[in-house]
Design goal:
This protein is α+β, with helices and mostly antiparallel strands. Helices cover 40% and strands 25% of the residues. The mean pLDDT is 96.
């Protein structure tokens, strides 16, 4: 990450909108923005499959689901945040990973300029490639600030995307079980 370029660009934006980058309240803003970008784009260049490299041989071959993993990402079209929760599941084929690893996969992939649709697919594909399970499923629900604070201005609108791989795509009953677990967790029937 080139922090000096981000600092210079932020100063230019401050000037372009008609403000003084040397004003007391804005004086440290370019450095803070550079630090923020380093944090929120920390997933660029990181291979999320690395998180899945340490697993455990286990005879468990039933569904494993982690619900409501909070995430924050940046819409690549407007560089505004979108945020929400991801629910992911997989059916192991003799190998499981620690559940924190699943949340880390979501974080790594969310910490780069993204589209929600791509993020959903990337998580499912990472699980398939990193775990070689019988199948994987992902549902993401998110609010996009590029739609709520500008443009159409519809706060509270939620975008829902899903990706199904392997047995989740092939068998409607498996897919239905995954969605049922998510609904039950939220108290919905």
């Amino acid at each position: 990450m080139d922090k000096d370029k981000i600092v210079a660009a932020t100063k230019a934006i401050i000037e372009a909108v008609g403000e003084d980058p040397d004003r007391e309240g804005l004086l440290g803003t370019p450095d803070r923005v550079a630090d923020m970008y380093a944090e929120i784009f920390a997933g660029i260049g990181v291979d999320p499959k690395e998180e899945l490299s340490v697993g455990f041989e286990e005879a468990h071959e039933e569904m494993v689901v982690l619900c409501d993993i909070p995430f924050y990402s940046m819409c690549e079209h407007h560089l505004l945040p979108f945020h929400g929760v991801a629910s992911i599941g997989y059916i192991p084929k003799g190998r499981v990973v620690g559940i924190s690893k699943l949340a880390r996969v979501v974080d790594i992939l969310a910490r780069r300029p993204q589209l929600q649709e791509r993020l959903t697919s990337q998580i499912a594909d990472t699980l398939m490639e990193g775990l070689s399970p019988r199948g994987a499923a992902v549902v993401i629900e998110a609010e996009h600030l590029c739609m709520t604070m500008r443009g159409i201005k519809k706060p509270g609108s939620t975008v829902v995307t899903s990706a199904n791989r392997g047995i989740f795509r092939q068998k409607a009953a498996t897919r239905a079980e995954f969605f049922s677990i998510i609904r039950q967790k939220r108290g919905l029937q």
